[in-house]
Design a protein that fits this description.
This protein is of the alpha/beta class. Helix content is 45%, strand content 18%. Strand 6 (213-217), helix 7 (221-231) and strand 7 (236-242) form a beta-alpha-beta unit. The structure holds nicotinamide-adenine-dinucleotide.
């Protein structure tokens, strides 16, 4: 099954259960716009290379299209479609005035120099042209894109605007460096949201996070922040995996120390001297309380779900569990905090950044964190109540909350003409 098939299956399950209005169902079952741009980039050795970029805009009934940009060799239109659709559900679930979009470029950033990355990003932004815009479609970081990429994007986008309108357009992307109009707390926001939802789960289960054990897949923005914030609870990180391999230490791995090491090792964890290398299967089999997948889609499947030896899967990544994997986790009594809830901290604080830009304000970290806490824990409570009411799993409940909001808006506004 493709990633988009997974989204469709999740959507159909929730739509059937809640008896979603058939007209609204038809609308939400499709993406609104799918933009493909092809553009040339001059590489450092003077060669011209052609790139293909995608931007899929799923729905903007609740507000401007919103979603990250991914640079990865596996990016294709199917994956971007799925990621765009999840963004619509995420905005609707957390009650922020954004729709859903996602974009990406299929290439391997590890094979490019910093100068090439800048030129690729600027040409991609230029090629997207007015398909993005601060009140229309607002990109953000995702896999292999970061605040620096967002700074190049905003600079390129505003350079194409008339001089007197440049400053008014800096909210065309979020996740910018703080000095270039970003928000404090955006960098850690997704990992922070993951940990806030884990805290809620722990409260509900009367489970003590102090001394609890956890494993993490993906040690980039989301995984490394989630790991470091779990450390503040006194929880113990037993195993980590990234694109370079997996490592394990039964006495615990210090995520801050590991991040320092990775910073000097091209961002990778392989070769970390204070843990032993293990293979992918052993990482999944590691006995721990919590597993935080924070890398790519389709990691927990019919083959791998039986291997997990945890109480909770907190989905930092988008789509880490496919429908077969989900069924097995449910049967095995493993709780899941679904992606559209668990990793929504990123888009919530992106919304705060967008608001600050529009109002020329700079909020303090305490304000950002407390507003994020309120939004994500309210959404958590709503999903819990909905799961009880419909006697269903948490992912389906999260979809029902999101779809109900979209259904209400479509019914109120009707269809033009
Ligand atoms: P990132 O590029 O900062 O980090 C990705 C990490 O995954 C890296 O450590 C990389 O080595 C690792 N990885 C890649 N392939 C892997 C593989 N096959 N096995 C194990 N590890 C692998 O990306 P990120 O921003 O942290 O995003 C991670 C996930 O979180 C994605 O699913 C993304 O869509 C989702 N997400 C990100 C944000 C955000 O704000 N950045 C928000 C919501 C959701």
């Amino acid at each position: 099954m493709s990633v988009y098939d997974n989204v469709t299956k999740q959507f159909n399950k929730a739509a059937d259960l809640m008896k979603l209005d058939p007209d609204v169902r038809q609308i939400l079952a499709r993406t609104e716009n799918e933009i493909i741009v092809n553009f040339p980039v001059k590489m450092d050795d003077g060669r011209i290379e052609m790139f293909r970029g995608y931007r899929v805009q799923h729905n903007n009934a609740l507000g401007p299209f919103k979603g990250g940009l991914r640079y990865h060799p596996s990016v294709d239109i199917d994956e971007v479609r799925a990621l765009a659709t999840w963004m619509t559900w995420k905005g609707a679930l957390t009650n922020i005035p954004f729709g859903g979009a996602k974009g990406g470029l299929q290439f391997d950033p590890c094979e490019c120099t910093c100068n090439e990355m800048e030129r690729i990003t600027r040409r991609f932004t230029f090629a997207l042209g007015n398909n993005i815009g601060p009140e229309y479609d607002i990109p953000a970081p995702d896999v292999n894109t970061n605040a620096q990429i967002m700074a190049w994007m905003v600079d390129t986008y505003v350079s194409t605007q008339p001089p007197h309108q440049r400053q008014a357009n800096v909210h065309v992307v979020t996740g910018k460096p703080v000095e270039s109009g970003g928000s404090v707390g955006r960098d850690k926001a997704t990992g922070q949201g993951v940990v806030y939802t884990i805290e809620e789960w722990a409260k509900e289960k009367n489970f003590n996070l102090k001394g609890a054990t956890y494993t993490v897949q993906g040690f980039g923005n989301v995984g490394s922040w989630a790991a470091r914030l779990m450390k503040q609870h006194g929880s113990k990180l037993l195993a980590v995996e990234d694109a370079s391999g997996a490592i394990f230490n039964p006495d615990g791995i210090d995520p801050d120390d590991l991040l320092d090491y990775a910073g000097k090792n091209k961002g990778l964890i392989s070769g970390y001297p204070k843990a032993e290398p293990i293979d992918h299967k052993l990482l999944l089999e590691t006995k721990a309380d919590i597993f935080i997948p924070a890398a790519l889609e389709n990691q927990i499947t019919a083959e791998t779900a039986p291997l997990l030896n945890v109480k909770l899967v907190a989905e930092g990544a988008n789509g880490p569990t496919d429908p077969d994997g989900d069924e097995i986790l449910q049967k095995r009594g493993i709780d899941v905090i679904p992606d559209i809830l668990c990793n929504a901290g990123g888009v919530i604080v992106s919304y705060f950044e967008w608001l600050q830009n529009k109002r020329s304000e700079f909020w303090e970290l305490e304000e950002v964190d407390s507003k994020l806490y309120k939004k994500i824990t309210n959404s958590y409570a709503r999903v819990g109540q909905t799961a009880k009411k419909h006697k269903t799993d948490w992912r389906t409940a999260a979809y029902i909350v999101a779809l109900s909001r979209l259904e209400t808006v479509y019914k109120e506004r009707g269809i033009f003409p």
